Fold this protein.
Amino acid sequence: MFETVQTRTGAASGPGAREDAHPAAVPVAGDPAAVSPADARSLSAALLERLAELEEGTPEYAYVRNTLVELNLSLVRFAALRFGNRAEPMEDIVQVGTVGLIKAINRFDVSRGVEFASFALPTIVGEIKRYFRDSSWSVRVPRRLQELRIELAKAMDVLEQELGHRPTTPELSDYLHVSEAEVIEGELASNGYSAQSLDTAAGDEEETGNGVARRLGAEDPAYDLVENLTALRPLIASLDERDRLILSLRFCEELTQSEIGERLGVSQMHVSRLLHRILATLREALTDEAV
């Protein structure tokens, strides 16, 4: 499966000594992109150990690092798919993720005994998130919410690596020392990052040519929530913990009702009824405040 190439680990130290007196074998694959995932993991481990022994800036170092990048591009593509609903071209997202992969290779410490993929994936995702976080806002959002969204993005990066899972609203609230309502408000504000053309194909309707504009006639209760973020904050804070969680899962994490049901251990119909009740409660409270 693998070939080996010789790299020099030391220079000549005396008269007549050969320059390549201490060669070290580096396993390589003919085409890194064609290597199976299992082989890529084992080969990456060997190359990372070799990289730690090489001097940065040498041709051998560059060769080994470039091979590691090619072997692990599948990690970048996997991470990029998480952001497939963004307006940015997938090619650009993969390019940004590759920068994260290179950073992961540079920072990886083989002595810690951690699998490279487990270390690299959060770094790649974090690099992509920073790219979107630093992008300009497509619609006008209050500066307070822009700053809160940035703090949330940073907290997500840190907690996801520490906890090993996507942090929940309560975990973000504890970490940032803000209320859960403010966390939800900040996550909802992320909708202002990217605008979409009204001619863009909606969902699986790409072949029919039906754009987003064709589907704007349907009322969505979430619109009222987004338009009243400031007024909703104290109202959301008054909800019980489960209701706040449901709102966060639906409008921040954008889970479907079925996915929320699986998370909570209830049926999709029950989630639908709960959402209807929660939104009705918030709408009624907003109406009372306006009177």
